[in-house]
Amino acid sequence: MSLEETNVHRILIIDLGNKADILEPIDSLFAKSKIDHMEVWAFADKQYNGFGSDSKFKSKDVQIFRHDSGLKNAADCGIIWNTAVKARSLEGTKIQLDIAIATADKGFRELENLVNFSGHRCIFLQTLQMTLDWIRDGV
Q: Given Cys at both, which of 21, 41, 58, 62 links 31, Cβ 3.0 to 4.6 Å?
């Protein structure tokens, strides 16, 4: 059964504060492949400068959420807020969210419970390989 038939929408969230090395290969993968029913949200603090001197994104599916306030946990708050808003906005619909968060930050663990409580699914990915495997499982 395809993702379209099951009404599953997948979101990969990347915490650029500690997993910045994941963004470039993911961007390249999305640019090369037609991946439906999936979005990539990457959250950055003010200090983030892209993934190199030529950090133009190749894929239109990758969205950067830059938090310029300069506050220490601004991007982390953005991850929590945007995830919660998305999960709550789909309550009562037939759409099932499958969210994966690429981060080494253990402070997000409660977010998994909150998303799952809303009837959706949330997991954490610690490595690039885990992230690529999660993407391929949904294609």
A: 58
- The two three-digit tokens of residue 21, written as one number: 């090395």
Query: Rounded distance, CA 100 to CA 114, Å?
Result: 14
Say how many residues make up the chain: 139
Phi first, then psi, for residue 13 (nearest 5°) are -110, 125
Q: What is the dihedral of CA 42, 106, 35, 58, to 10 degrees?
A: 30
Tell me the per-residue pLDDT of 9-66, one tens digit each, with 9 for 90 and over. Answer: 999 999 988 777 888 888 888 877 777 778 899 998 876 766 554 556 666 677 888 8
Q: Which residues 6+ apart lie within 8 Å of 98 measured at CB? A: 8, 9, 10, 11, 120, 121, 138
In one letter, which amino acid is 101?
I
Both tokens assigned to 74: 């601004």
Q: What is the torsional sign of CA 54, 16, 66, 10?
A: positive
Contact 34, 61 (CB under 8 A): no
